[in-house]
């Protein structure tokens, strides 16, 4: 009887591990050029808006200068020149003007720069994105995931975390439930950036809802964004933030806006099953293993 009890105890540990240990599974959204451009436009607007909040602060401006360099580089200038030579010149020139005017402390000029740049970026959208894709909710949803990815990267930098927040296989569990502890911010600029990018993604999704009001899942996704922004403002731990995105937003967004369909056309790569389905499958597998194990023990 003691051997049987020990076997059952071991079985319980195994089953528990199957249910609560994340598999090597992560949302891996591939590159669609149209979605990437829509994300880029929103990200640049977000960065220069933050610059305008810190006119005259060299440390902050240097940070956002580096961030803007990630979103717009010589390759972007070259590719824009293939479509529109005016925007090829004006977009990078206005980004530089924004940073220069912010460095000299000219708030009025920065405000004008930001407004002008927003106009140029808006003009770039129909230049770089074909109308059929611009009106495609799947492409728009994919753009949202790209901005969310940047928000998670910046939050990781804000905490100097060794965890890749975009890799949900690195999520950890405590007693079968998520822990929620306040985090220490070590990079205030990256923290501000993460919150602003998450808020931008939330607004992008709200704009999608206004165009697709009857999509099932909109309410759940909206609630997920609300929780994410609240938790970021509360400086929650990485597991909570990852749970907000990878469990609270991504699975429903993927299913509601058919992001899987883009995979068939080579536009993105997403997992076959959303997390809840995967966990259900894993849990069922654990029960099957338990049943077979019991039968071999003669219970």
Question: Could you name the key traits of this structure?
Answer:
mainly alpha; disordered N terminus; 299 residues; 2 domains; single chain; disordered C terminus
Characterization of the model:
This protein is mostly helical and 299 residues long. It has two domains: 1-25 and 277-299; 26-270, no CATH class. The chain contains 14 helices and no strands. Helix 2 (33-52) crosses helix 9 and helix 5 packs antiparallel against helix 6. The radius of gyration is 23 Å and the shape is globular. The model is unreliable at 1-30 and 261-299 (pLDDT under 50).
What's the structural blueprint in terms of helices and strands?
Elements: H1 2-20, H2 33-52, H3 58-71, H4 74-81, H5 85-103, H6 107-128, H7 131-134, H8 137-159, H9 188-211, H10 218-233, H11 238-246, H12 250-256, H13 259-264, H14 275-297
Helix pairs in contact: 1-14, 2-3, 2-6, 2-8, 2-9, 3-5, 4-5, 5-6, 8-9, 8-11, 9-10, 10-11
Rg, Cα atoms, Å: 23 Å
Helix content: over 70%
Order of helices and strands: HHHHHHHHHHHHHH
The counted number of beta strands is 0
Globally, the shape reads globular
Percentage of residues in DSSP E strands:
under 5%
> How much is the average pLDDT?
81
Specify the structural class: mainly alpha
Distance separating the two termini: 10 Å
Number of helices: 14
Number of domains: 2
Return residue spans where pLDDT drops below 50 for at least 5 consecutive residues. Answer: 1-30, 261-299
Biggest sheet features = none
